[in-house]
Specification:
The chain contains eleven helices and eight strands. The protein has 261 residues and is an alpha/beta fold. The protein has one domain: TIM Barrel, CATH 3.20.20. It has an eight-stranded parallel β-barrel with strand order 1-2-3-4-5-6-7-8, surrounded by seven helices. Helix 10 packs across helix 11.
Length: 261
């Protein structure tokens, strides 16, 4: 087992794992019909450099990750990287559950995106969304798949997440990324800290993602307790265009390590 994989613990000392979202590799590939850049090779390079997992978010319109990518990555990870986590994101009322039933990834992240949504921009509204989420979470758990709910920084929502039986939340971090380096940074970050504390009090694991990058990641992890995993795609793939996959992953791991120094 990869020694950098974060333990299943909500303690302040649990080391955060890095999952690389390869959607943007597929987006570039899809502008031509010759199969490059390769999504599979991108995943392999990132895993070889020390990433602990791979994330995909297959949208119904197939504008980046497509069904064959989801299947091929599952096969690659099962064959060559059995200790790595496969995290499939999406709206469970659209196409996500078909992948969950067929592939049973280690983790599924429920995201409340509309079919034509440009990018994820909000978390679930709890308790309002509980009725439609409950049977889907129950099904994932019956299949042995860990469920994470994409959530805004909202401490009062954490008891509802626990009531649903989801094991984790993924904190939607765009508001922090927008505030980083401004006078609002401390105030916005305090909301994430409070939400993480509320999640830990409910026995939930904490993931985070959206617009985290090499500049803001360390500060986030220093301030927010118990983060087990960050899922990073856009910034990481953009950095890889300049640094290469391997050095980029190592840079993000250094950012994570600095948070625990």
């Amino acid at each position: 087992m990869n020694p950098l994989v974060a333990p299943e613990s909500g303690s302040h000392g649990a080391r955060c794992a890095l999952s690389v979202n390869v959607n943007k590799v597929a987006l570039l590939r899809n502008t031509r019909h010759i199969g490059i850049p390769s999504v599979l090779r991108a995943a392999e390079h990132c895993l070889l450099a020390g990433a602990q997992g791979i994330t995909v978010h297959p949208r119904p319109d197939g504008r980046h990750i497509r069904a064959h990518d989801v299947d091929e990555l599952a096969a690659l990870l099962k064959r060559d990287w059995p200790a790595a986590e496969y995290n499939i994101e999406g709206n469970p009322t659209q196409n996500l559950m078909d992948y969950v039933r067929a592939l049973r990834p280690q983790q599924v992240t429920f995201v409340p995106d509309a079919e034509d949504q440009f990018t994820s921009d909000h978390g679930w509204n709890l308790p309002a969304d509980m009725t439609r989420l409950q049977p889907l979470i129950d099904e994932c758990k019956s299949l042995g798949v860990r469920v994470s709910l994409f959530m805004d920084p909202s401490p009062e929502a954490m008891p509802f997440v626990a009531q649903l039986g989801a094991e984790r939340i993924e904190l939607y971090t765009e508001s922090y990324a927008s505030a980083w380096g401004t006078p609002r940074q401390a105030e916005v970050l305090a909301g994430f800290t409070a939400t993480a504390q509320a999640a830990l009090a409910q026995g939930l694991g904490i993931n985070a993602g959206h617009d985290l990058n090499r500049d803001n990641l360390t500060d986030f992890l220093r301030a927010v307790p118990g983060v087990l995993e960050v899922s990073i795609g856009h910034a990481l793939i953009a950095d890889a265009l300049e640094l290469g996959y391997a050095e980029t992953v190592r840079e993000y791991q250094r950012c994570i390590q600095r948070a625990y120094a």
